[in-house]
Amino acid sequence: MQIKNLISFVKVAQLGSFHAAAKHLHSSQPAISARINSLENELGVQLFERDASGTRLTTRGQQLLPLAQRMCSLQEDIKKQLHDVLPERGVARIGVSDTLAHLWLTELLTRWQETLPLMEFEISVDVSTNLHQQLMRHQLDLAFIVGPKQSDELCSEPLVEYPLCWVANPELAKTLIDNKQSSLNLQSLVEYPLLSFPRNSLPGIQLQHALDNAHIEQARVHSFSSISNLLPLAEQGLGIALVPEAAASEALGAGRLHSLNVSPSPAPLPFIGCWRQDDERHLAPLLNQIATEIIEPGAPKTE
C-alpha cells in the first residue's frame, strides 16, 4: 500500500473535493483520482461517493480515515527523525533511469534541494542494468531503476509502473493502418526500422522475445540509451518506436506521434527505488520517500 495513495485519500476527505486535494498536493485531478482508484482496488471497497452535491466518504471510507491519518502522521515522524540524523552536508549519489529522468528529474531535484539545502547531488542518468551494477559496487547511494531488485543486499520499494506503446509519426502511422485492415502485429512493423532501448534493458529483452516468438528473424532494431534521442527520430519518421507512453505523451498530444495498436501488447515497465541494506547514512530512504510523493503513473502536470 503506497503512502501517497493514503495521503491523497486523507486530503480528499479533509477538503471534500478531488480538485481541491490536487491543488493542495501540487498534483492533477486525474492523478489524485488514479491514486484513490488504486487504493479502492487494493482494499476492495468504495471509499467515496460522488454526485452533484459533492464528494462524501462511504462507511468504509469513514472507517479508513483515522487509520490513514495515523499512517500519514507516522510517515511524517519517520521523515523528521531520519532528517534529524542525516548529515547536513555531503554528496548524495543518485542513479536515475533515463525514462524517469526525462519525466521527473526537475521536480525530484527541486524537492531534494528544498529538503536538504546544503547537500550536493551527484546524478547519474543511465540504463537500469548499469545503475544496478553501480549500486552493488557502492558507487551509488540510491537508484531508481526497472524492477524487481536483483540482490538480497538491496532494499527496494515500488515506485511507478509505465505502460509501453508503439508510436510512429503521422505519415508512417497512416501507411501502416491503410496497409493493414485488421489490428497490427509485429510482422506489420518489421518492414520499417524499430527504435527501442538497449538490448540488455527490459524493453529490449521483451522486444527480442516477442520477435523470437513471432519467428521474425529479419527485424532491424536500432537501440538508444536516451529517450530524448529516440523520440525525435520517431517524429522524423526514421522508424517505429517502442517507448513508455508517459514519455511520449507530449508528442502524442501535439500530433507529432501517433500511438499504434499492436498485438501482442508489450508488458509495462515497473520502476522501483533501490538502495543498499548496509547504508548507514539513512539518506536513501528519505530521498526515496520524497520520490514516491512526486512520481505519478502519467506525465508531469503542466500549467
Automatic annotation (TrEMBL):
Q: Which domain of life is it from?
A: Bacteria
Any one Gene Ontology MF annotation carried by this entry is: DNA-binding transcription factor activity
- CDD domains from the xrefs? PBP2_LTTR_substrate
- Keywords linked to the UniProt accession: DNA-binding, Transcription, Transcription regulation
Tell me what this protein is called: DNA-binding transcriptional LysR family regulator
Which family does the record claim for this protein?
Answer: Belongs to the LysR transcriptional regulatory family.
Q: Which InterPro entries match?
A: LysR_HTH_N (IPR000847), LysR_subst-bd (IPR005119), WH-like_DNA-bd_sf (IPR036388), WH_DNA-bd_sf (IPR036390)
